[in-house]
Predict the structure.
Amino acid sequence: MLIVFFNRFLLTILILFFLISNSFSEIINKIEISGNDRIPTETIKIFSKISINDKVDDNKLNEILKNLYDTNYFSLINLSLKNNILKIDVVENPIVYNVVFDGIKSESLIETLKTQLQLKERTPFNEILLVQDKINIKSTLRNKGYFFSSVDIYKETLKDNRVDVIIDIKLGEKSKIKKISFLGDKKFKNKKLANIIVSEEFKFWKFISSRKFLNEEIINLDKRLLKNFYLNKGYYNVKINSSFAKLINENEFELIYNIDSGSKIYFGDLSINLPSDYDEENFNEIKNQFNEIKGSVYSVNKIENILEKIDRVVLSEQFESINANVEENLIENKLNLTFNIFEDEKVFIERINIFGNNVTSENVIRNQLLIDEGDPFNKLLEAKSINNIKSLNFFRTVESEIVDGNDKNSKIINIEVQEKPTGEIMAGAGVGTSGSNIVFGVKENNFLGRGIGLNANLNLGTERIKGKFSVNNPNYQNTNKSLNFEVSATETDRLKNSGYKTNQTGFSLGTRFEYFDDLYLSLGNSFFYEKLETDSTASARQKTQEGDYFDGFIKLKFDYDKRNQKFQTTDGFRSTYGVNLPYVSDSYTLTNTYSYKYFTELYENNVSSISFLFQSANSLKDDDIKLSERLYMPSSKLRGFEIGKVGPKDGDDFIGGNFLSAININTTVPQILPNNESTDFLIFMDIGNIWGVDYDSSLDDEKIRSAIGIGIDWFTPIGPLNFSLAQPLSKSSNDKTESFRFNLGTTF
């Protein structure tokens, strides 16, 4: 009986609840709108998302209020529902007529701040957005280095329900980085870590660089760079615990990075799980790589390389809906990895939307996509496409969102980018035993938003002055091949050491692309006018080469790059071969160049390398090559000898040779002064030779030169200083030795 009574009671409650709920709902027969002046009645009806004959209850009324407030057009809304008539009474927000910036003269800064505003001209005014805009402006100014700026925003009421928004800014001075410190269990010296990050300490002569100012965006970039550096050194558990700025003096900060590197981790067992219907032979290359890296130091670059190979399998074998994830299992100091390959549900890409690219052409962004509208959706290729867009370095942020399409088997990809300045101004200077030089350059990486790079620079050296202007299209007509054009003018003055001076002006046109994995091919054409002069010290044979020359060359270069990273390489090798083939020339000089350099770590914190260089320059018609085409030993290839004063000699002039070779062995010695944060030591051995004099074989000198020594890299307050002490082991009687050599450089 009790159960029956309870069931009846519950049923009664439910019926009463249903009746009460329905008593508060009505069918809309009419909609009346009042209070609107600027916004049409029909537009408000559309905003409310309510129509005649709709059923309305309390929940629906709340939904109507939310819909109308979300438009930001109204400051107050009242709803009433009586006798099936819905009355909507509104008070309209004023319209922003002008947005005025006071206190700032820089037009570029004003334009940057305008992009951060939600209150824009011809949009409704809202007090909440006013507060948010103030926060956004303060944040942007901090990112620009103005940590002590003040921002006041107020409105000025105009007639016709309009307002002006006045933004009063007092910038103050930019906050400077007085000192950069690295604390904690960092394993590496400050000198090395300072070379990893972008921020730099303020010096009075750095009048161009903006990296000397405190900038939150750059600090966050520094943290990512530091973490990637440690991850590639085997420190899997590294934590950049904090980065903060401590005020030292007025407007000067100490930038501090607190690092906990943890212990070094090694690759353990690596395996791959495939769907049952996949042919495992397609993944043999990946399995072979597992065997190669097992037991080696953990590196995030190696994992990315494996995922790159998986991507290539996807493309070559047309596994359209493949996806992958990585399971990690850390046991003591060994990291076991399982790569899971699986097929997703097959869906197609309905549309790809790109937002935020106000400057960059949409084609430039779409050229980086490995998937297109109508293709099967592939998570791996979508992620790689986003990484390709980020690698352009045109945007502060790149975000992607995948949402359902209109069809259950379709997806829409929304890509949101935030653009950043892509121009650069650079200046630097160097001085050393080999002379001095000054460099100035201007660069634009995204000209007219088309992804085209422009570069103009001037280099003033002791022997050489060179100016050039170049244009580079990294993806010419969507071919994945770069196209570059360069105009240059060079004056080389070797009257003191070699008896000649030359002025060369011309242009070159070429292309570069990846021919095979990590093998790049460059093809080009160059044409130059050259004026060659000699002085009274030149031999009679040399003086016969005075005059004007026109030379055209076809250039070919193979570049096989297997380095683990291009900056501060610690493992791998790079092998290059280049040839200049003349087609218009007086001497028809064919030049060949081959270089090879191998890197390895022999022990903790050590970097060792061995390199080889061979060059030849000979006339195809068995004639004498020009003085300016003769080969000279590069200064970095033979320490212990004066630059340009090695090899065959004609009278008092060093004339270079037709052939050149060099072998260099370097190894760092971290055990020397391990606690000195700004100094690195290395031991080196250089072996080289220049030989061959086509116009007079009696001047030939085939003596092998060699030297051994120590080098020191010192990160000084001015800039990097490196010097070497070398002891020649073998030389020719004509050679000029140089036991001590130094170079000091800085940027502005």
Q: What stands out?
A: The radius of gyration is 35 Å. The mean pLDDT is 86. The chain has twelve helices and 35 strands.
